[in-house]
């Protein structure tokens, strides 16, 4: 039996294994275990008291939403494009920048390849080595830029922190990469979906002076609101204007807009989330180490685990059926050995339950 291609598919898993959904603990989706900021539900409830929230079209320009994001990300509103998820923004960037050939470091989020293929982009995978913690700045030649030049690629698509490894490439390395890419007329598309956990490391400030750079961000994972479907990207204002024209109209609903604005305004929630995640991730890493389970050096809200098993699929199913634990089986991540699993960092009780289950298997 094959695992879902994405995390967070509890209804499917509960039906498939005939297990009540409330018995399952979802470590497969990297969502803030604290749930949304309290103001989100209040803002949506208040919006529904006005009938025009549902009877009128959303703001075509998403002005209030982009203004809110601009304040949160400390960047001009005219540098921001929004959509109902990462994929529509990536597709818009591909069309805007006329991407033809893309170098893709792997392992990586599977939707990168799916989106590139759907848009008929030539893809060359660049396998990252577990021997150097899947780093982009490996000393082993060729470098990313050298490989891109050799392959006549016009674009590199990568993530920081990476998914599924959680590895954060240092800011100095990312700046060197950006400057090399700029000098060689190569576009750099960077998915920073989990950068909220280390916000000072973002390359968003560099978009003001680098038209070849597009930075993608998610608001739903960090703020615990994936059901609202909203994402944004930041680029040079000229690029952003053109990119926005390539996004389908009315990209974010009115209710999602109200919820996201409320979420981004809660600075105390954001700081508490960063602190809590760092503490819980450290505790989980330590507990896994006592079980001799190696992990990557993650800076996000998940860990990549390497488990000793001859049958990853059977182990994944066993954890679900016997312990109600749903890990992200990583067998469909390109270039990643099949014995890797990804586990979200959840609250202390859930993390202890994961450790207890792994101790038995």
From TrEMBL:
It is an enzyme of class 2 (transferase). Residues 24-358 form the Aminotransferase class I/classII large domain. Belongs to the class-I pyridoxal-phosphate-dependent aminotransferase family. It comes from Granulicella sibirica. Transmembrane segments: none annotated. It holds the Pfam family Aminotran_1_2. Keywords: Aminotransferase, Pyridoxal phosphate, Transferase. The lineage of its organism: Bacteria, Pseudomonadati, Acidobacteriota, Terriglobia, Terriglobales. The keyword 4Fe-4S does not apply. Its cofactor is pyridoxal 5'-phosphate. InterPro entries: Aminotransferase_I/II_large, NHTrfase_class1_PyrdxlP-BS, PyrdxlP-dep_Trfase, PyrdxlP-dep_Trfase_major, PyrdxlP-dep_Trfase_small. Its EC number is 2.6.1.-. This is Aminotransferase. The keyword Transferase applies. Coiled coil: none annotated. SUPFAM superfamilies: PLP-dependent transferases (SSF53383). GO terms for molecular function: pyridoxal phosphate binding; transaminase activity.
